[in-house]
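Whiteboard transcription, Tuesday session. T.W. wrote the C-alpha cells on the left side:
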C-alpha cells in the first residue's frame, strides 16, 4: 500500500472530487486509484483559515514504480495492519464461558468468543438497551432511581449514555481498534469513525449500535441474561467453579471455569465480593472533579475563528491539561461539544454527573469534566484496604446529594472560587438531563480538589479565552472517570484464582469505550489460546 500523508484541503472547499484531484497530483498519475482515508484531522492553527488534513492509503498494482518516481518524504510504501484471531488451544472447555457485564469490554469479549464457537453467556444486571433507555429517561424526569439499571448499568455500559467518543491513546499494531470500529460501523455508526482523528457516534446512534452488536453475538450462538446479577461464586482448589446468579428474586448456581469480570468502574458491590473472596487487587490513582458548561458558540469562535469554516464545522471539541504549582494534574475529560450534563447516579443517596451528546451535537452548551488527579496517599491511611478509593468517591457523591437535596447541585464559577452558594445562574443556562438546583458545589469537595480546579480553569482561560467566565456552570460531582481499583492479573490475563479474568475499565485496564473494547478482545484471545470449544 502507498500511504500519502498530509494532504490539506480548506474546509469550505472539501469534497470527494477535490480530494481525488490532490491524490492524483501527489502521485503524478492521471486516473483515480483505489484509495481509502486512513486519517482525517482538523488544522486550526491559522484561523480563520481551517484545513482538513488527510492521510490516504492507495492500493495499486505498480506501487513501487509509482513511488520510485516521487521524491516526497510524505509518500511511502507501507503495510496495512489487519486483525488476526488467535489459534485455539488444546484444552477442552467443558462449560460455557461466563462474561459478567455487557459494556464495551464484555460485548467485544463476547463477540470474539461467539464468532470462534465458544458460546459465551453474558450476564448483565441491567436491562437490554431499549428498556434501559426508558428507565434512564424516567429517572431524569422523576428522580426515581433504579439501582440496577441506570446510566452506569445496563446493556452497553456507562458509555452508552455519553458523547460516544471513540478516540484512544492505545497503540494499534495488531489491528484491534480497527476491528472494533468496523463492528461499530457494521451496526450503524457513521463511516467517518474509521478515519476521523476524534471519532464520535453520539448517544442516539450508540443505542442502535449496542443493540446490533448483541444481535450479532446471538446470531453466533451467544446468550444474554439481562436483569441478572452475579452475587457469589465458588472456588475449589484455587479455581473458580460456579457463579451464583440472581434474577427476579431467584438464585441459581451456574457452573463455569472461565469467568470474565467486565463489570465497569461502578460495580462497587462486585469489587467488595471479589475482595471478600481474596482476589488480589490494589488501590490506584484515579481522578474526580466537576462538570463545566460554556456556550457552544463561545468555544466554536475561539477554536475556529469567525470565518466560513466555523459555520460549516460541527461543535468544536477541546482537550486541556495543567499541572498545579504543587504538582497535581488537572485536565478535561469526556468533553461533549454541543452536549448535556447528565445525572449519572447509580446509588441511592449519592449524586454523580457525566456528560453526553447526541450525534448532531446541537445543544446550546458544550461541557467537559474538569478532573483532578487523586493519588492513593490522598485517601489511603495505614490499615486501609484496596477499596478505600471507593469510599472516597462515595463520600463526595453523598455530599453532592445532600447539597442538591437529591438533585444535581450547580454553581457559577465565580461563586465556586469565592466558596459561596449560587442563588441564581447568570447568562449561561444549564443544559442538564435530570433535576438540578443552585447550590455550593465547592462545599462537596475537599480543599485540595477545589483549589486545583480553580487554578486549572484559570490556566485553561489562557488557551481558550472565556473559559474562566464567571457565569460558566459547574455541577458535581464527576466521580466515575476511572476505577480506583486494579484487580491483578498475570500474563495470561488471569487473577490469582484460576479461571477468573479481570477485564476492562472496572478492573483497571482501560479508560474509555475503545480501550475497554480492546481489552475485551485481549481477554477473549487469552481464553481462545488456552481452550478449544468442541465439547460445549
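and on the right, the sequence the group agreed on:
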Amino acid at each position: 500500500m502507498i500511504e500519502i500523508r498530509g494532504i490539506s484541503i480548506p474546509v469550505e472547499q472539501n469534497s470527494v472530487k477535490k480530494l481525488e484531484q490532490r491524490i492524483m497530483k501527489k502521485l503524478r498519475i492521471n486516473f483515480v486509484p483505489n484509495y481509502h482515508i486512513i486519517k482525517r484531522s482538523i488544522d486550526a492553527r491559522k484561523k480563520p483559515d481551517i484545513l482538513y488534513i488527510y492521510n490516504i492509503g492507495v492500493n495499486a498494482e505498480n506501487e513501487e514504480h509509482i513511488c520510485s518516481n516521487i521524491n516526497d518524504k510524505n509518500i511511502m510504501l507501507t503495510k496495512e495492519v489487519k486483525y488476526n484471531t488467535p489459534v485455539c488451544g488444546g484444552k477442552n472447555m467443558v462449560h460455557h464461558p461466563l462474561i459478567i457485564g455487557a459494556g464495551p469490554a464484555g460485548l467485544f469479549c463476547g463477540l470474539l468468543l461467539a464468532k470462534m464457537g465458544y458460546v459465551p453467556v453474558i450476564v448483565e444486571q441491567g436491562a437490554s438497551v431499549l428498556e434501559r433507555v426508558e428507565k434512564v429517561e424516567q429517572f431524569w424526569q422523576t428522580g426515581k432511581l433504579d439501582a440496577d439499571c441506570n446510566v452506569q448499568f445496563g446493556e452497553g455500559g456507562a458509555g452508552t449514555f455519553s458523547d460516544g467518543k471513540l478516540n484512544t491513546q492505545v497503540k494499534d499494531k495488531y489491528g484491534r481498534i480497527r476491528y472494533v470500529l468496523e463492528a461499530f460501523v457494521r451496526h450503524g455508526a457513521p463511516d467517518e469513525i474509521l478515519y476521523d482523528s476524534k471519532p464520535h457516534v453520539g448517544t442516539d446512534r450508540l443505542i442502535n449500535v449496542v443493540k446490533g452488536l448483541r444481535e450479532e453475538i446471538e446470531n453466533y450462538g451467544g446468550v444474554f441474561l439481562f436483569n441478572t446479577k452475579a452475587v457469589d461464586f465458588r472456588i475449589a482448589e484455587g479455581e473458580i467453579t460456579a457463579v451464583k446468579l440472581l434474577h427476579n428474586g431467584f438464585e441459581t448456581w451456574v457452573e463455569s471455569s472461565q469467568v470474565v469480570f467486565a463489570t465497569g468502574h461502578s460495580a462497587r458491590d462486585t469489587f467488595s465480593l471479589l475482595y471478600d473472596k481474596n482476589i488480589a487487587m490494589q488501590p490506584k490513582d484515579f481522578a474526580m472533579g466537576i462538570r463545566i458548561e460554556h456556550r457552544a458558540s463561545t468555544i466554536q469562535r475561539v477554536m475556529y475563528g469567525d470565518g466560513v469554516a466555523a459555520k460549516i464545522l460541527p461543535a468544536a471539541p477541546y482537550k486541556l491539561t495543567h499541572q498545579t504549582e504543587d504538582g497535581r494534574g488537572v485536565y478535561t475529560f469526556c468533553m461533549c461539544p454541543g452536549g448535556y450534563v447528565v445525572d449519572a447516579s447509580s446509588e441511592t443517596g449519592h449524586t454523580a454527573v457525566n456528560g453526553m451528546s447526541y450525534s448532531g451535537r446541537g445543544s446550546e452548551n458544550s461541557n467537559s469534566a474538569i478532573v483532578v488527579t487523586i493519588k492513593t496517599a490522598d485517601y489511603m491511611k495505614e490499615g486501609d484496604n484496596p477499596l478505600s478509593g471507593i469510599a472516597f468517591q462515595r463520600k463526595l457523591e453523598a455530599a453532592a446529594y445532600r447539597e442538591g437535596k437529591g438533585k444535581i447541585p450547580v454553581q457559577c464559577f465565580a461563586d465556586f472560587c469565592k466558596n459561596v452558594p449560587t442563588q441564581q445562574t447568570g447568562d449561561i443556562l444549564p443544559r442538564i438531563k435530570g433535576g438540578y438546583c443552585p447550590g455550593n458545589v465547592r462545599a462537596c469537595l475537599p480543599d485540595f480538589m477545589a483549589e486545583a480546579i480553580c487554578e486549572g480553569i484559570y490556566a485553561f482561560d489562557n488557551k481558550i479565552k472565556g473559559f474562566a467566565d464567571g457565569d460558566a456552570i459547574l455541577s458535581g460531582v464527576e466521580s466515575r472517570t476511572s476505577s480506583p481499583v486494579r484487580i491483578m492479573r498475570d500474563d495470561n490475563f488471569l487473577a490469582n484464582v484460576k479461571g477468573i479474568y479481570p477485564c476492562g475499565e472496572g478492573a483497571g485496564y482501560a479508560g474509555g469505550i475503545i480501550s475497554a473494547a480492546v481489552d475485551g478482545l485481549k481477554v477473549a484471545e487469552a481464553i481462545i489460546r488456552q481452550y478449544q470449544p468442541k465439547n460445549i
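Someone added at the bottom: Residues 258 and 527 are 8 Å apart (CA to CA).
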